[in-house]
Structure formats: C-alpha cells, structure tokens
Design a protein that fits this description.
This protein is 24% helix and 40% strand. It is of the alpha+beta class. It has a 6-stranded mixed beta sheet. A hairpin with a 2-residue loop joins β5 and β6. The protein starts with a helix and ends in a 21-residue tail after the last strand.
C-alpha cells in the first residue's frame, strides 16, 4: 500500500469516527484491532465492544471532531482529534495508529484538557492561539 493510500485510510477512519459510522470503522479495522487509553490503562479489544461502550455511555456518546493535523509513514500514523463530551468539556486527543495488512490494527489515544499558560514563562515562549478555547 502506498503512503498516500495509507494517509487516505487514516483520514477516512477519522471521518468514520467523527460520523459515528461504526460499519465503516469495523471494515477499516484489522481482525486483531485494539484501542488502548494509556491514561486509564484500558484496552478495547473488539469493534463490537467499542460500539457498545460508545452507545451505552450514561451521559451520551462523545462527539469527535477531526483536529487540524495528521501524518505518518509506513505503518505508523497519527491524527489530532477534539472530543466533545456531554458535560460541555472538550479534550484534545492524539491518536497513534498502527496499520497492518492495510487496516487499522492498534490505536493508542492520549487525552488532555486545554489550559491557560502560566504568566511566569511568558518571557521564554511565543504565545499563539490555543488549539481549543
């Protein structure tokens, strides 16, 4: 598979996640697919479990927005996401994606909330707009 095809696969995968298109997610996943959330230590081990945990979340499923950047080469890719939760919070996420046999096989997603920069370090940084505010 060419790198451009892999990039298109990763974009389509992110779009399917954004659209809650579970059948497309399942088609783009390798039979050995797993998604790990390192901050909680949890791993989702099947598309069926992923679907069920998304639709059975007590406060409702989060809405996924595709962030501004993605990239990669070979079988290692990444994508920025913004996850909107029912409580109104928005979290930045980076999804590290491993492809196998032309499909998404492993994902590691790291989450972080935006924060205001502390004034004490202003002299050493250039301040731009936050990814989300």
């Amino acid at each position: 598979m060419e790198t451009t095809d892999r990039g298109a696969l990763v974009r389509r995968y992110a779009e399917a996640s954004r659209d809650d298109d579970f059948s497309t997610l399942d088609r783009l996943r390798h039979p050995d697919w797993q998604q790990t959330w390192p901050q909680s230590g949890e791993t989702v081990t099947s598309s069926a479990n992923y679907h069920d945990l998304r639709v059975n979340r007590p406060e409702g499923a989060p809405r996924v927005e595709i962030g501004g950047h993605s990239g990669g080469s070979g079988d290692d890719w990444w994508a920025e996401l913004i996850v909107h939760y029912a409580d109104g919070s928005r979290w930045l996420a980076i999804n590290l994606i491993e492809l196998r046999d032309g499909l998404v096989c492993r994902e590691r997603i790291y989450f972080g909330q935006p924060f205001a920069p502390p004034a004490w370090r202003a002299q050493w940084v250039t301040q731009g707009p936050p990814a989300i505010s």
